[in-house]
Amino acid sequence: MRVLGIETSCDETGVALYDSERGLLADALYSQVAMHAEYGGVVPELASRDHVRKLVPLIREVLAKANLTSKDVDGIAYTEGPGLIGALLVGASVARSLAFAWNVPAVGVHHMEGHLLAPMLADDKPDYPYVALLVSGGHTQLFDVQGLGQYQLLGESLDDAAGEAFDKTAKLMGLGYPGGAVLAKKAEAGRAGVYTFPRPMIDRPNCDFSFSGLKTAALLAWQDSDRSEQAIADIAHAFQLAVVETLVKKCQRALKQTGRKRLVIAGGVSANLELRTQLDIMLKKRSGKAYFPPLKYCTDNGAMIAYAGCQRLLRGEQMDLGISARARWPM
Ligand code: KG4
Ligand code: ZN
């Protein structure tokens, strides 16, 4: 089965074609990041309008890259939510209309399920069951994953998501938006021990997180610093260490609680190399294994939606002719 996947939940227009036998056939991504950077955050109305401009050309591009036509598509998957409602509606309308015109089934996919299954796009795929850490700009959650659609929430952030904390800390030091990856890069030149930030909720016997206090600690350190490049690097280093240690400790707790040996890390922050290294070390100590999506599929993309949608369509799921998009949608 060949499935066209469409992602438009935020500021990335992603399209991909996934084949249940042959894997990913082609994909294309257009990022609106440069447009929103000017405003210091995503402007929802501009995001929707840009998805309108880019989506159909990207679909054409993906079909051309795969050397296929619309007749070769057996189903369409799109991100139904959660996300910006206007942006979601663009993907939903295009997906549902094309499915109607091409006479194929359509299925709405949960954006976070897309992230959760993105490691299946790697050569080394995890078997079920596993614990999954979802760390993106909007979510920080730990799940026990027993199979497709069987996700039990073990814990989550009570305030800011990890990516959001990265972005806010980067922004206050003038590193632009979204600055998570830039901050991680700056941390490489940081000296250990110059600053020490709190590890919020690390000793609480649960799998919940809190990152808003950490951002405040970084702000106070920044205000007291000489605001040099070295100060940025030192603060970035201490900040990243605190986030990574907190995430690793909570993953350890989730693995212990569930008895699982496999850990999947997905979402934009799973691109963080320090987090990858520390989780690998922790899993090796426990004789387990950490699985990551290919770097390219850590952040928002159409491939993860095509994959997740393909699994659901193969199970016979599909939606009626209505167009459905949900800004909020618990998984
Ligand atoms: O999954 P994603 O693309 O979008 C959401 O669904 O939120 O994640 C984006 C988030 C942003 O907060 C971004 O700063 C963060 O992932 N991010 C990183 C890195 N690369 C992206 N955070 C830390 N280190 C990175 N290398
Ligand atoms: Zn995402």
- What percentage of residues falls in helices of 4 or more residues? 40-55%
Large-scale geometry: globular
Structural class: alpha/beta
**Number of DSSP strand runs:** 10
Order of helices and strands: EEEHHEHEHEEEHHHHEHEH
Q: Uncertain runs with pLDDT below 50, 5 residues or more?
A: none
- The number of helical segments is 10
State mean pLDDT (0 to 100 scale).
96
Distance between the termini: 26 Å
- Radius of gyration, taken over Cα atoms and rounded to an integer in Å: 20 Å
Strand percentage, roughly? Answer: 15-25%
Strand order in the sheet with the most strands: 3-2-1-4-5
Heterogens:
5'-O-[(R)-(carboxyoxy)(hydroxy)phosphoryl]adenosine, zinc ion
Q: Largest sheet, described in full? A: 5 strands, mixed
Family: Belongs to the KAE1 / TsaD family.
Binding site for substrate: 134-138, 167, 180, 272
Cofactor: Fe(2+)
GO molecular function, one term: tRNA N(6)-L-threonylcarbamoyladenine synthase activity
